[in-house]
Design a protein that fits this description.
151 residues, single chain
Length: 151
C-alpha cells in the first residue's frame, strides 16, 4: 500500500449506518477533507478517486452520491461536470434557494407560475411584469413603435 493510501486509511473511519467512510483528518472551511500531497492540499475525496480510478479528466469534478462532503468511500464517488454537481444540489434539495416556495415579490412557485431557466426557477408573473416595464420604457424612449391592432 502506498504512503498516501496508508495515511488515508489511518485518517478515516467507517460509518456503518450509511457505509460512508468519513475523513477525520484536516478539513477545508468548505467541509471537504484535505490531504497534503506533492506540496499542496488536495481534496481527500479527489485523491481517493484517483487512487481507485486514475486521473480526473479536465472539466470534471468528483461528486458524492451520498451527499456527504466528508465521505471518501470510492463506491460513493463518481465523476461529473460542474453542471451535474449543481443539478445534484438543486434536485436533492441542498441548494439554499431550493426550499423557497415564493419569489421575492411573494408569488408562489407552482407549476403554472414557474419557468425553469438554467437550473434555476423564475417567477412567470415577475418576468411578464419586467417585460411589460421594459416595453413601456422603450416606447417612451422612441426605440419601439406601438403594435397596431388590426381586426
Amino acid at each position: 500500500m502506498s504512503d498516501v493510501a496508508e495515511r488515508i486509511r489511518e485518517l478515516s473511519t467507517t460509518i456503518p449506518e450509511t457505509s460512508c467512510i468519513w475523513w477525520i483528518g484536516s478539513n477545508h472551511s468548505t467541509g471537504y477533507g484535505g490531504v497534503w500531497l506533492n506540496g499542496k492540499v488536495r481534496g481527500a475525496h479527489r485523491v481517493v478517486y484517483e487512487l481507485e480510478h486514475g486521473p480526473i479528466p479536465d472539466g470534471f469534478v468528483v461528486r458524492h452520491k451520498c451527499d456527504n462532503r466528508k465521505c471518501i468511500n470510492p463506491d460513493h464517488l463518481e465523476l461529473g461536470t460542474h453542471r451535474d454537481n449543481a443539478n445534484d444540489c438543486i434536485n436533492r434539495g441542498r441548494h439554499h434557494l431550493a426550499s423557497r416556495t415564493h419569489c421575492p415579490s411573494g408569488h408562489e412557485f407552482n407549476e403554472e407560475n414557474t419557468i425553469p431557466y438554467k437550473g434555476a426557477r423564475v417567477c412567470r408573473t415577475c418576468k411578464q411584469e419586467a417585460n411589460r416595464r421594459s416595453y413601456i420604457k422603450k416606447l417612451k424612449l422612441g426605440k419601439m413603435r406601438r403594435k397596431s391592432s388590426r381586426s
